[in-house]
Design goal:
The strands form four sheets. The protein has a six-stranded mixed β-sheet with strand order 3-4-2-5-6-7, with helices on both faces. By secondary structure, the chain is an alpha+beta fold. It has six helices and 17 strands. The two termini are 33 Å apart. The structure holds guanosine-5'-diphosphate (GDP). The site of guanosine-5'-diphosphate has 16 residues, from helix 1. This is Translation initiation factor IF-2. It is found in: Cytoplasm. Belongs to the TRAFAC class translation factor GTPase superfamily. Classic translation factor GTPase family. IF-2 subfamily.
Amino acid sequence: VIDTVEDKEEDLQARPPIITIMGHVDHGKTSLLDRIRQANVVSGEAGGITQHIGAYQVKAESGAVLSFLDTPGHAAFTSMRARGANVTDIVVLVVAADDAVMPQTVEAINHAKAADVPMIVAINKIDKPAANPQKVRTDLLQHEVVVEEMGGDVQTVEVSAHTGQGIDTLLEAIALQSEILELTANPKRPAQGAVIEAKLDVGRGPVATVLVQNGTLKRGDIFVVGEQWGKVRALINDKGDRVDEAGPSVPVEVLGLNGTPEAGDVLNVVETEAQAREIAEYRENAAKDKRAAAGAA
Ligand code: GDP
């Protein structure tokens, strides 16, 4: 029932990369996400207000659009992957220039390698007097991450989330990496996406932030998402504006769900409400059986 037809070559268009920031605690993931968000908000003026919906888009100076997952840390990355949602094209590994490779840095390197996702290293806190970016590069080599300066193919960018130094360069490095990946999607097909956040809102009912991975999600579309289904009542973008549709790599809040899905659930647009209900019920029953079997064991 769910449309799994392969996209025709001529329907494929370039899409923005989806980026996850990872790294050791206190190396500056949150600060960097905040700085990037402020730097440059797509369609709004620089410094425009963004809503926290779990992801946001920015425009690099070159005009390239980039989509960032706004949830730092590794739990989100691994739990999404465990649920089958591979929503990351590029990992930005943050390493503090006044520290070095730490246990969670190694963990992030391993996650990126396991997922076969290319990495860009942001050497952060370059404003600090104790900053020693060269030590970071040598340290990385010990963990089989060979940076460009040492003959490898991993880009490093020296940045400061505090002063803003190097942020534009980082965005361009990501845009370059993205070009190499030749990321495409078919905006013409029914949407498929992944839930990156979901909650039950007192005023609005169940709300899910969906990152569209292929196709275009439109107001009025009927969909299944995990064990839930719904009909898109409203779409709200990362600026808090209502929009009529969201194409590939665009994060949007979706209203009109009959229940609250889980992060990592996959959303698929289907043709009729009957289909949507049937698939959701089937999945719900399958999940119940599984829980019962696990309980009996
Ligand atoms: P996270 O745990 O990786 O998300 O790290 P945070 O973003 O919370 O940053 C940890 C600490 O480092 C905070 O006190 C930040 O203010 C500080 N910090 C982050 N980036 C920079 C930077 O570029 N320069 C300096 N000097 N401090 C920074």
